[in-house]
Amino acid sequence: MSSTIKGILAYPITPFDRDTGAYDPKPLHTLLDNMIGSGVDAIAPLGSTGESAYLDDAEWETVARETLDYVDRRVPTVVGVSDLTTAGALRRASIAADAGADAVMILPTSYWHLGEQEIREHVTAVADSVDIPTMIYNNPATTGIDMSPEFLVDLVSTGDITRMNRINELSGGTIPFFNGSNPLALQSFSAGASGWCTATPCLAPEQVVHFWRLLESGDRSGACAVFEQIEPLLRVLVSRGLPSTVKAGLEFLGVDAGLPRRPLLPLDDNTRTALSDALSVARGVIVAS
């Protein structure tokens, strides 16, 4: 996976009709076209940003197949297949692989706190069930489960610079890892990250891609300058649940992706103002053609 999937992995939201709350594919198509057209390196649907935890099984499968069909291999896809049960995650992984995903992403989550052996067996069962790579997502802020660097050397993903460096050291640079923390994007690439998994391309795709291309070409000073302008947006986005912030940002851009699904709530006025200001600054970044 390290040779085929790297760079900017964009998290799309799952849009809902504002009146009925049902899945609405049209805004998703617009979003995917914008992100792919701007040059993101991969699409990663049905993670936390995609409100996967709030979809029933039929909705999840509909969104997974619709996304993969519409992307149509224009870029690689990494489908989030997390579920409270191993059986549910296995089912989702099978659907994603059958529908053409290039990889699956799994976030170990459970009502009960999981031990390392339980996580290992859960993840291994999913990975062994499909013939495509499995990305392990470490997100203690949402799961309450924090996997150590030593443990992650076998499974790998993280969200802390010290841990990223430790994984790089422990594996001798042989295990690809991806950053999922927006504010740490610049530092994570310096630590050896293969890519950045982020919902920011929903709102400022050209600017995020421009940042990565500058960094990839060795222009660190240029990348730092771009990052400085997009960083306020990155911080506002993670100040609340990503579905709430991203959907509010899309509304500012004229894309109605509906409301986040309850119990998530729309943004309060103060956060909307901060988001609007940060979005204006980020999208004001001049992108060289």
Throw out a few tags for this protein.
7 strands, 289 residues, alpha/beta
**C-alpha Rg, in Å?**
18 Å
Oligomer: single chain
Strand and helix order: EHEHEHEHEHHHEHEHHHH
Principal-axes shape call: globular
Low confidence ranges = none
Estimate what percentage of residues fall within beta strands. Answer: 5-15%
Strand order of the largest sheet: 2-1-7-6
Number of helices: 12
Largest sheet, strands/sense/barrel: 4 strands, parallel
Helix content: 40-55%
**Could you report the average pLDDT, rounded to the nearest whole number?**
89
The N- to C-terminal Cα distance equals: 29 Å
Number of strands: 7
State the secondary-structure class: alpha/beta
SSE topology sketch:
Layout: E1 7-10, H1 25-38, E2 42-43, H2 57-71, E3 78-80, H3 86-99, E4 103-106, H4 116-129, E5 134-136, H5 140-143, H6 149-152, H7 161-171, E6 178-179, H8 185-190, E7 195-198, H9 205-216, H10 220-237, H11 242-252, H12 269-283
Parallel strand pairs: 1-2, 1-7, 3-4, 4-5, 6-7
